[in-house]
Amino acid sequence: MASYFSCSDGEMYCEKINLKEMLRQIELQYQAVLTPLFVYSRKQLQDNVKAYVDALKEYSSSFQLNFSVKANQNLTVLREFQSFGLSATLVSGNELRLALEAGFEPTHLMFNGGGKSAWETHLAIKHGVLINVDSEWDLKQTLDICRHGFPEPKKAKVLLRMNLNIDPQVHKYVNTGMLDCKFGLSEDSIEGCLQLLEEPGCPAELIGLHSHAGSTIYQTDVFKLCTRRLLHIRQKLVHRGFTELNILNVGGGLGIDYLEKEVETRSWRSETELTAHNLLELRQFLLLYSEKSKFQQRTDELSSVDVASIMESMAELITDYKEESLQEVENYSHIFLLAYPHHASPRDLVQSISGLLKDTGVTLMLEPGRSLVANSAVLLARVLGCKSTPNKRYVITDASMTEVIRPCLYGSYHHVTVLGSSSGCKHVYDIVGPVCESADFIGKDRLLINPDQGFLVVHDVGAYCHSMSSNYNARMKAAEVLVDGSSWRLIRRQDTFEDFLAPYKNLE
């Protein structure tokens, strides 16, 4: 898939817009410093949607594609997705309000969440939103509001969120598919919900099943296994009398390749740690799949690799720059590249489950967030200065954990590009912000040309960055800009200090 962000002669472009020139214009217009600044590509958003829709049209006869609003709650972005024909998945009453404001058809919206307040459920029922039931008490609350929350009783269409105990092999904070996670109903615990739904005059109709294993998932096997188990549960429920059970929602969670350009700024220090990490992950991956015949040879090959020896060679490479050590490591690379999983695309996802859905008559629902919006935005930031200690060099920027919390929260990687000259001496830097926390960093151990008092760009910040931003240290939330070809427009202004003070005023 083409990227609409490019770098040429030390300048960064979004589509046809030079980011530094755009920043100069917008700061002149608003008479304010507007970095850090989120910049979105409309064409990238459109391409991301097209990748899903093309795959769904090819492999599925009936489908619904929902954008997961928690990934990005900018109203203009939501309106763009609505104009592209998507619906939306929500996890709060205010996200529902946002979706209605953006113009989404209410009856196609999906309301998820394990802790719905009564007013949120009331709002969903009022507008005919599909409700994803997370627990027995969640269903009881829904039924009670249907019966007693309106002048006349109302009906609700519901799905059951199943916890299938499938490990997506992701960070524990974004793993939502295991039995020790707070989400969903295990197959052994749905009987209470089924009995409530079977009661005469029940105001809720069970129309589907849902699962969501986690986020940053790179392997389609996870989605395939979820689909197979949901179909098995559906078959049993249809035989029990739930004949309108026609929606299968396998959630979202498809990852993107955050590491695509990582090699450009990788330091030797990171090289050693990354190699060790990849070797351990590779071994775990191969052992997990060793029962499959196509992986058996690779497992055998791996067992002959002396990991300690490779790591020792890497250490020699760093200290002595011995070419023979590098060659020794590269001799094993074919094993790693053949066996290690690649980043699945929307087409891979849909293709992996389409065969299971053939002739079932169900409507496939997907609710991606990250894979629709993450690579559509960058964060443009100013470099405030550089600093050295006996152990570290730092690039200090006006962007921080209040704009991009993922590195601090999940240990996630975001690529960073320094704008300006591409020649000169390179050093290894940590990229940090002004927030008063040691955890305030954008990236660590990046090999960069001295970026003193210039600009840098943080990549792939369209998902779970601005929507997770905060006012910590009394920092104002950042502005956002949407680029479309050779034009741009502000789609969120930067917060002002007056905005920050407003909740504390006029209290009496």
From TrEMBL:
GO biological process: lysine biosynthetic process via diaminopimelate
GO terms, molecular function: diaminopimelate decarboxylase activity
Catalytic residues identified in the record: 436
The protein's required cofactors: pyridoxal 5'-phosphate
Domain Orn/DAP/Arg decarboxylase 2 N-terminal: 49-265
Coiled coil: none
Superkingdom per UniProt: Eukaryota
Alphabetic keyword roster: Decarboxylase, Lyase, Pyridoxal phosphate
Record bears the keyword Lyase: yes
Gene3D superfamilies: Alanine racemase, Lyase, Ornithine Decarboxylase, Chain A, domain 1
Protein name per Swiss-Prot or TrEMBL: Orn/DAP/Arg decarboxylase 2 N-terminal domain-containing protein
